[in-house]
Recover the amino acids of this structure.
């Protein structure tokens, strides 16, 4: 973990931290009730209508300025607080979509209330200590499927925010580790459809054009290619529709693939290597093929000063060890639409451990743990840490300047890839 010489644990936030922590603990029962409600009422991506209404009503009751259906997205929202005139704007994020079949197995109920708790803590500190600036909490739908933050970036939802944070729960991550700040992978999905011609599989198979053969050839071609992929490049896919009946030559099949690697430029090259397999399979079987290549979920590039300050606060105030490793060696294998946010502004996305048991995210076991009192207690510690980082960003001009400088230097490494608002979340249709 890198700690810069003038980044002392909790510096710039010591006077305000007690206020932050007190406000969050005072709201803890109300926040836990919201989290428990979300957990019991899971809604999948872009279907979070009940959550949208519940959360916006809660935030209005808490006294925040709230914009419903923010930027025209039906389940997005914005809550904010401003004190004084001028000053920076610090952003927070709340996710609240669930997974099909396993509900809040990614702990988005905790992500949601972590963002709200940090907002409450920052407001309290800004009032008590006369801190000028603005804190914005964005309600961001559809992280699991739909790239909600990418769509919000396209629509200008993050405009005017100077730096941004959110936090995500995790399973056991190593002995003595209470949280992680690590890079994640860039990802794009490829939807594949093969169109053939049906025929009776026994009476006249020669009259058919077999779309399932095309899918199988493409699958085997890509599986064979894996030996030649570089370290850190990943391709994984499934057949989502394989036909309708065993005695009918399939006229239609569908597949879905995810392609991942460490940065956007390499990802484009990986996709260019994969796509010919689909066309070759269509050619070999006489089928037609249609590809839908999604917009980019970029790799996660943390702003180092934000990561280091968060780790310092968590160590100083809670005695917790946050493992910060922003190198390629520290990269985690998942992906998130928050990656695009880290290309648009200085940002940080810590993970926090809520169990020392083996269950990982996206399992029924993890969903159960995300509803427990210990998981909520850790969530409010993490929210306190994020709020402390936000307060330091608002009050310490040197820290804010160093954060922006580190982010600009990180963006210089990737050059023209930084215009994430134009990467797009809409599907690109290729024949």
């Amino acid at each position: 973990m890198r700690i810069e010489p003038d980044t002392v644990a909790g510096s710039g936030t010591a006077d305000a931290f007690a206020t932050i922590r007190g406000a969050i603990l005072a709201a803890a029962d109300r926040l836990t009730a919201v989290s428990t409600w979300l957990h019991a009422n899971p809604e999948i991506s872009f279907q979070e209508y009940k959550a949208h209404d519940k959360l916006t009503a809660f935030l209005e009751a808490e006294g925040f300025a709230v914009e419903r259906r923010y930027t025209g997205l039906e389940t997005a929202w914005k809550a904010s607080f401003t004190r004084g005139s001028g000053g920076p704007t610090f952003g927070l994020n709340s996710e609240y979509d669930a997974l099909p079949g396993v509900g809040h197995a990614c702990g988005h109920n905790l992500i949601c209330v972590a963002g709200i708790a940090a907002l409450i803590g920052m407001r309290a500190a800004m009032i008590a200590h006369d801190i000028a600036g603005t804190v914005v909490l964005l309600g961001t739908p559809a992280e699991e499927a739909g790239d909600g933050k990418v769509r919000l970036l396209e629509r200008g939802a993050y405009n005017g925010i100077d730096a941004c944070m959110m936090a995500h729960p995790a399973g056991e991550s190593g002995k003595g580790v209470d949280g992680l700040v690590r890079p994640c992978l860039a990802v794009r999905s490829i939807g594949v459809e093969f169109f053939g011609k049906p025929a009776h599989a026994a009476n006249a198979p020669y009259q058919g054009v077999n779309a399932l053969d095309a899918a199988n050839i493409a699958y085997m071609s890509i599986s064979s290619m894996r030996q030649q992929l570089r370290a850190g490049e990943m391709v994984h896919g499934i057949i989502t529709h394989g036909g309708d009946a065993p005695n009918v030559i399939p006229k239609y099949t569908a597949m879905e693939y995810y392609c991942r690697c460490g940065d956007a430029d390499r990802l484009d090259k990986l996709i260019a290597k994969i796509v010919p397999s689909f066309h070759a399979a269509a050619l070999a079987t006489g089928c037609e093929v249609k590809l839908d290549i999604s917009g980019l979920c970029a790799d996660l590039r943390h702003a180092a000063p934000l990561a280091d300050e968060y780790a310092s606060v968590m160590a100083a105030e809670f005695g917790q060890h946050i493992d910060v490793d922003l190198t390629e060696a520290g990269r985690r294998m998942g992906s998130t639409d928050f990656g695009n946010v880290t290309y648009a502004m200085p940002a940080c996305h810590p993970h926090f451990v809520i169990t020392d048991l083996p269950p990982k995210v996206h399992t029924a076991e993890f969903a159960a743990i995300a509803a427990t009192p210990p998981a909520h207690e850790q969530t409010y510690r993490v929210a306190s840490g994020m709020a402390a980082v936000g307060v330091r960003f608002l009050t310490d001009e040197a820290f804010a300047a160093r954060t922006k400088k580190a982010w600009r230097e990180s963006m210089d490494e990737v050059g023209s890839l930084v215009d994430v608002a134009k990467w797009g979340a809409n599907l690109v249709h290729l024949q």
Remarks:
- The radius of gyration is 23 Å.
- Residues 45 and 168 are 17 Å apart (CA to CA).
